[in-house]
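Could you join me in thinking about how sequence relates to backbone shape in a protein? To get us started, please write out a protein record for me. Would you write everything just below, so we can both look at the same thing?
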Amino acid sequence: MILRIFSFLVMLWALGFALFALTLPRPADGRQTDAIVVLTGGKGRLERGIALLAQHKAQRLFVSGTQRTVRKKELALRTHMPEALFDCCVDLGRESVDTRSNAVETAKWLREHHYASVRLITTDWHMPRAHADLARELGKDHISILPDPVRSEPGFATLFTEYHKYILRRLAAPFGY
């Protein structure tokens, strides 16, 4: 009996991993949102957020998890965008250090600005956990989240690690972790 239960759990885990790996979210359409949030740490994230802001797809951009030493002028140079765009419409969040604290920092910023919709930008393999954490943090605030992942080609190790982080977050969240 124990062997059957263990076999069932292993099969359930394997099917979950396959589903996770095969159904990575795709980039969103060009819909308008009140705000754009970029979670730092991955290639192409900031560039995508800035390009959408420059196309007037949102009023403001929030970059969550920015190192304290980074300045807007540096980001303007790096993305080849006018510094004026950063001065008027980009906020840098410097409090978060991981996905969970990205969600806390982002939710606080969204509430302060009274936004009703946000485009969330992160890497495709990171989106399920980031979206779940932000949705949980926003709770009943009725702020709609449009997931807009940056496509990548993650290796097995990246997917394997992220799948387990996602599972652990989903299991720990109801207990306040």
The radius of gyration is 18 Å. The helical segments are 2-22, 45-54, 72-79, 83-89, 99-113, 127-138, 156-172. The longest helix spans residues 2-22. The chain has one domain: 26-175.
